[in-house]
Amino acid sequence: MLSSIRLLTPVFVVALFAMTISLAAKPDLVNTAAGLAAWDQVYAVLVSPRCINCHTATNYPQQGDDRHRHFANVVRGPEGFGVPGLNCISCHQESNADSTGVPGGENWHLAPLSMQWQDVNDRPMSSAAVCRAVTDRSKNEDMDGPALLKHHAEADLVLWAWNPGRRPDGTMRTLPPISHQEFVAATRAWVEAGTPCPKGR
Amino acid sequence: MAKYRLTMNGSEKTVDVDPSTPLLWVLREELKLTGTKYGCGISACGACTVHVDGVATRSCVVPVSLIGKREIVTIEGVGSDPLGRAVQNAWVEKDVVQCGYCQSGQIMSAVALLKGTPNPTDKDVDESMGGNLCRCATYVRIREAIASASRQIKGAA
Amino acid sequence: MRPATELNRRSFIQLTTAATGGLLISLYLDKPSLIAQQPPPPKVYPPDAFVHVRRDGHIVITVNRLEFGQGVQTSLPMILADEMDADWSKVIAELAPAEDVYKDPLFGIQMVGGSGSIAHSFQQYRELGAKARAMLVAEAADRWKIPPDPCRTENSVVYGPGNRSSSYAELADGAAKRPVPQTVKLKNASEFRIIGKRVPRLDSHAKCDGSQKFGLDLDLPGMKIALVAHSPVFGGRVKSVDDRDARSLDGVRDVFEIPLAKGSAVAVVADRFWTAKQARDRLKIDWDLSGVERADTVQLLAKYKQMAATDGNVAINRGDTKAMDRVPAANRIVAEYEFPFLAHAPMEPLNATVKFEGDKAEAWVPSQFQTMDQMVIAEVLGLKPDKVTFHTEFAGGGFGRRATTDSHIPREAALIAKRLRGTPVKLIWSREDDVRGGYYRPMHVHRVEIGIGRDGMPVAWRHVVVGQSLLAGTPFAMMIKDGIDETAVEGAKDTSYDVPNFRVSVHHPTVNVPVLWWRSVGHTHSAFVMETLVDELATRAKVDPIAYRQKLLKADAKKLHSVLELLDQKSGWRKTLPRGRALGIACHESFDTAVACAVEVSIEDKRPRIHRATVAVNCGLAVNPLSVESQFQGGLGFGLTQLVAKGAITLKDGYIEQRNFDGYAPPYIIDVPTTVEVHIVPSTEPPTGCGEPPVPVISPAVVNALSRLTGKRYRTLPLTTI
After folding, report:
1. Which residues of A touch C665 (CB under 8 A)?
2. Which chain C residues are within 8 Å of A99, Cβ to Cβ?
3. Which residue among A75, A89, A95 places its CB closest to the CB of B130?
C-alpha cells in the first residue's frame, strides 16, 4: 500500500498542476458563469419586499409583500430619514416592536436615490440594471467587492430582512427567498468572480 | 411586568408595566397624562405624537421597553418650551380646533416641524403634517397657525 | 308672525320657527310630533337649568347638545349671553346631562343631528337669556324700589337712574327666587352685541394643552376597561370560547359572553387597555355563522345594478312619463353611479362608561343621542331612565356615528357593568372594531336617464336610486311611507332644479350590514349625482356652469340663487386659471342651508390637488360667522372622504376587508384644499344648520374640475384612478 501511494504522489501532483493550468487557461469563463449564477441569487434577495421596499425611486417607501405605498403619507425627506414632523424613527425604533407590529432596526431610513432598485412606477429594475447600480462606486457609497460583502454580511438593516418581526395582525413577515447564510455565500462567490453583471438593459 | 424609569416632561417617573405596553398607554393609564390620544394604534393617524429626545414619535407603536433614558415631552409639557407655547398660542389665535381630539398630536408634530424648519413652505407643511389625521378637517387653519407661529418665532429671534 | 311649527318629513324633520324682533310666544314641543300632528301646549323652560350666575361673576351656561366639533358649546351660550347682556369674558359653557328639560325643542329627544342645534334652539336660548335678564332687572328694580322700565343692562351689570348699578353676581341669588316671566321681549337684530360676531371658541385652550377630557379619557376610582370580541360577520353567534390563554394574563378580570341585538359577542374586562387588548387577541372563539347572510360588495353591486334598471317605489313623478320617449337617443344621457359603504371613523374611538349600583346607575358617554342611550342603559339594568344619571362627555367627532337607533355602544357597556356591579366599566371600541363594526353610510347605485331639449336644458329626467333604508327596522321606521325612506332620495327628489317630467324612484334592498346616517345622509350621494350631471349638461350646452345652474333653478329657490350670485362675485380667480388647473362648480341645498362652491384643481402624484376653494353660504343669520367659516372649511375636507382612493369599506363573503386607517384612509392635509374662503350671504332669516351642508358639494365640485382636465366622467366612487 504505502509503496503505491509513494508511486502515485507525483502523478497526483502533476494532475493537480495540470488542472490548475487548465483552469488558468480559461479563468474568465468559469469565474463569470459562477459569478453570474451567484448574482442571480443575490438579485432575488435584493428585489424581494424586505429589501426593495426601502430601495425606491420615489419620495416614499413601500410596505408589505404587495409593496404598496407606505401609509400615512410618509416621505423620503432630503436625506432619506423622513421630515421633521414625520421621521422614519417617529415610528421605527432600533428593534422590532412585535407587540405593535412595527419593524425596527439600527438607524431606520431609506436607501438613497442612487441606490434605487425600481423605477418611478414602482417596478423592480432588471437584474442587469440592479447589478450595475450596486457595483457603481459613484452611487453605492464607494463600496468595492469586499465592502459589499461586508455590508451584506454585517449591516444591521440588511440583517433585519431575516428577522423582520410581526405585522400588526400578529402574523410574521415573509423572509427573502434564501437564508442570510446563503445570501452571504452567494455574495462572496459573486465578489470573488469579480462582481460580474449580466449583459443587457 | 417590569419597572421602567422614564424622564417625562422634565421629571422622573417610575412605572411597573408589561414591557410590550406602548408608551401611549403608559402615559395615559399609569401616569394619567390623557392629553396624548389613542386614535388608531398603528401609527397611521398621529394623535399619539409625543417628543422623544426631541423627535416627533408615535407613542402608540413604541413599546415602553424601547424608550430607555430618552427624554419624553408630551402635550402637557410642550408649553414649557417657548416654541411649544408659540404654537399653542397660534392654535388658539387662529381658532383651529373643532372636536379637538387630534390636536395634541397636530401640535406636537407642528412643533417638531418648526424646530427643524423654522420657516416652512407649503410643501414642508404637506410633508411634516401629512401623516396627521383630522376628521373634522381643520387642516386649513392648521396651515394658518403654523404660518403664524413661524412668524412669531422669527419675530422673537 | 307665523307662530305655528310645521313638520315636514324631508330628510329628518324640519322646523320653521317664528323669529321676530319683538314679542315672542314660546312654542316648543314636548314630544316629536311624528305621530300626532297637533302642537302640544307651550312649555316654559326654566332659566335656572340653563344659566347660573356665580358669586364670582362667572356665568355658567348649560348647553343642551353634545359638543363634537361643531362649536355649539360656544354658539348657544353666545345666543343666551347676548339676550342676557352678560359679560362674555365671564361665560363658561357646560354640557347638559340627559334630562327632560334639555331635549331638542323640535325633535323632543335630547340629541344632536340634522344640523339642528342652532336652528332648533336659537329661539329657545334667546328666550332663556331674555328671561334671565328680566329676572335680574326685576331684582335690581325691587331693591331700588323703582319700576324696571328705566333700568338698562350691559356686560353683566344692571344700571338704574341716578348712577345706580348692581352686578349680576350681586343680584343672582335674589333674582333666582323670582317668578320666571311667561313672555319676554327679545332684542332687535340691530341690538345684537355678540350674535353675529366672529367669536373665538371657548374650548380652544383646553384642547390645545391636553387638559380637555373626552369620553375616552375618563378615569374613575376602581374603573375597569372592557373590550368586546365581535363576530367577523354581522350577526354571528358565539359557539365556543377558549379563554385560558386570555385569562392567564396578569390583570384580566373577567371573560364572558354577552348577547347582542343580533348574535352574541365576548367581553373581556381588565385593569388596563393594553391588557384587555392582548387578552382579547388571545381568545380562541368559534363563531356560529349558520343562517347568517354574508354580504359581499361585488355581489351587491351586481344586484344593485340589476335593480337600478327597473322602476322602484316612486318618490316623485312630475309631468309626463312619456316625455323621455320623445327625445332622440343622441340627446339623452344615461349614467350609472356607484357609491361604496363609508365608515364615519371619528378620531375618538367609540366608548361608554357605566357604573351600576343595583338601584341606580351612572353613565358617561360622548353621545349624540342622550335620551335614547339613557333609555337603553336603564332597560338593560332594569331601572327607570331617571335612575340613570347620564353625563354628556365631550366627543372627538361623531358625524352621526354616536347616534345609533339601537344605542349599541351604551348597551354593551351596560351589559358588562351589570355583571360587574359596583365597578365602573369603560367600554372601548378599538379602531379596528370601529372600521369593521358596521353602521356605515350604505352602498348606493343611481341610474339616471336625462332627455335634453334643443336649448340644452333637460326636458325629462328618470332617476332610480338603490340603497338600504336607514330607518327600516328602527324606532323611526314609521317614517317610511309607501316603501320610501326619504333619507335615500333627499337631494334628488326635492331638487330645486326646474325639470319638467321628473321621476325619482327607489329600491331598498335588505342587506346584513348595519347602516347609519353619515354627515349629510342622503345628500352625500344624491348631490354628487345631481351636480355632476348638471355640470355635464352645462358643458354640453357650452354654458358657464354657474350661469347654467342659475337658469335651471326654480325662481323661488332663493337661497340657492343667492349663493350662486355671491359665488359668482367672489370667484373672479376662476376666469384666469394657470395651465394644468381646472375649475369645478357645484351647489346644493340641504338642511335648509344653501351652498355653492368653486374649486381649483390640478392632478399631482396621480391624485387630485385642490389648490383653493371658494364657498358661498346662505344659512340665514350666522350666529357665529367664525364658526360657520370653520364648519365649511372642515366640512369640505370631511366631504372629500368620498373621493380619496382608500375611502371605501368593502366586504368579501361577509368579512370586512379593511382593518384600520391603513386600509380605510380618510383625507389627510394634502387631500383637502390648501385654502378655503367662505362668504356668507348677509341675512336676518332664522339661522339654519352648517354641520352637514358643506359635505355634499365638495366631491362633485372636484370631480367636475377633473372632468375638465381629463375629459373623463367619474361616476364610481372613490376615485382609485384618475
Report:
1. 71
2. 278
3. A75
Residues C550, C630 share a domain: yes
Q: Which residues of A touch C232 (CB under 8 A)?
A: none
Q: Are residues B86 and B131 in the same domain?
A: yes
CA–CA min distance B126, chain A (Å)? 9
* pLDDT value of residue C483: 96
What's residue C39's pLDDT?
43
Report how many domains make up chain C: 3
Q: What pLDDT does A7 receive? A: 60
Please tell me whether residues C502 and C542 are part of one structural domain: yes
CA torsion sign for C415, C418, C419, C421 is: positive
Helix (H, G, I), strand (E, B) or coil at C19: coil
Exposure string (b/e) for C298-325, b if CB count within 10 Å is 16 or more? Answer: eebbebbeebbeeebbebeeeeeeebbe
B109 with A86: Cβ contact below 8 A: yes
CATH number at residue B125: 1.10.150.120
The contact set of A with C (CB < 8 A) is: 71-73, 99, 168-170
C590, β-bridge pairs: C593
* Interface check B7 vs C, CB under 8 A: no
Residues of chain A below pLDDT 70:
1-30
- Does C299 reside within a domain? no
Answer yes or no: is C234 within a domain: yes
Chain C positions touching A73 (Cβ under 8 A) are 668, 670
Best of A56, A60, A69, A71 to mutate (most C CBs within 10 Å, chain C): A71
B29 and B88 assigned to the same domain: no
Name the B residues in 48-77 with CB < 8 Å from any C CB. 74-76
Q: How far is the C-alpha of C344 from the C-alpha of A72, rounded, in Å?
A: 18
Query: What's the pLDDT score for residue C45?
Result: 78
CATH number of C130's domain: 3.30.365.10
Query: Are residues C668 and A73, on separate chains, in Cβ contact within 8 Å?
Result: yes
Q: Distance, in angstroms, between C660 CA and closest chain A CA?
A: 10
| CATH number of the domain bearing residue B61 | 3.10.20.30
C30, part of any domain = no
Of the candidates C281, C660, C670, which has its C-beta nearest A170's C-beta?
C281
pLDDT at res. B156:
66
pTM assigned to the model: 0.93
Residues C386 and C404 in one domain: yes
| Residue ranges, chain C, pLDDT below 50 | 1-42
- C362 and C502 co-located in one domain: no
Q: What is the pLDDT of residue C20?
A: 25
C334 and C240 housed in the same domain: no
Dihedral of the alpha carbons of C326, C327, C333, C338, in degrees to the nearest 10: -10
Task: Print the domain residue range for B20.
Answer: 2-73
CA distance A199 to chain C (A): 33
| Owning domain of residue C396 | 215-290+350-428
Q: Could you give phi then psi for residue C110, rounded to 5 degrees?
A: -80, 120
Nearest to B136 by CA among C702, C632, C216: C632
Query: Do residue B42 and residue A100 have CB atoms under 8 angstroms apart?
Result: yes
The total number of structural domains in chain B stands at 2
In this complex, which of C278, C281, C670 lies closest to A73 when CB atoms are compared?
A: C670
CA distance A192 to A199: 19
Residues C486, C490: Cα–Cα separation, whole Å: 6
Q: How far is A87 from chain B (nearest CA, A)?
A: 7
Chain B contact for A77 (CB, 8 A cutoff): yes
Do C633 and B137 touch, CB atoms closer than 8 A? yes
Residue C383 CA to residue C678 CA, distance in Å, equals 49
ipTM of the complex as predicted: 0.98
Judge whether C304 lies within some domain.
no
Q: Choose one of C168, C183, C203: the last residue of a domain.
A: C203
